[in-house]
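INSTRUCTION: Work out how this chain folds

Fields: amino acid sequence; protein backbone structure tokens

Chain under study, with its fold:
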Amino acid sequence: MKIALIDYGSGNLQSAYKALELSSKFNKKNKVFIATKSKDLLQADKIVLPGVGTFSDCMKGIKSISGMIDTLNKEVLIRKKPFLGICVGMQLLATEGKEKGNHKGLNWIKGKVIKIKKKNKIKIPHMGWNTVKTIINHPVIKRKKFDSYFVHSYNFICKNKKNILAVCDYKQNITAIVGSENIIGTQFHPEKSQKIGLEILKNFINWNY
């Protein structure tokens, strides 16, 4: 099993790599590798897109790699390789992001990414541990409730509620996990969520779509 971690200049690459590598050790045949070119995805069985920074900067980073968008569309949407987006990597699945203007996303899951509403003097960014509640069962998410680590200021509003697999409460519903067929994304950081985060990554590696 080859798991590709896309390197497009996002800041949390090494921590995501280490967590994936640790989560994959249950099978010696598993191999996590960093994909720096679009052709690297052709040899992958599964694809992970991390993300730290603004929606627009991350999208620019992916577009800066020759052929990456087209290859992602082919490998994920057509060949149906399991895909995991983390934090901004999840947000990029949306139709558009509203951070510092309007920016087109991958449009794999219809919806928009908007600023978290500032209610009851909550702090933005939403940073730290919060309880995630599962709404729709999924092979990657095997718990009904668990705590995970968040760092973000924007919320993914899905057009179709069936794409929202889990939420957390921050004086409003925050989309914690989205999914559609072979695609799943987490707003929280599994690589920073200790035991439960490693469990989720292991479940993703084990996921036979």
The two ends are 13 Å apart (CA to CA). Residues 194-206 form the longest helix (13 residues). The chain has one domain: 2-206.
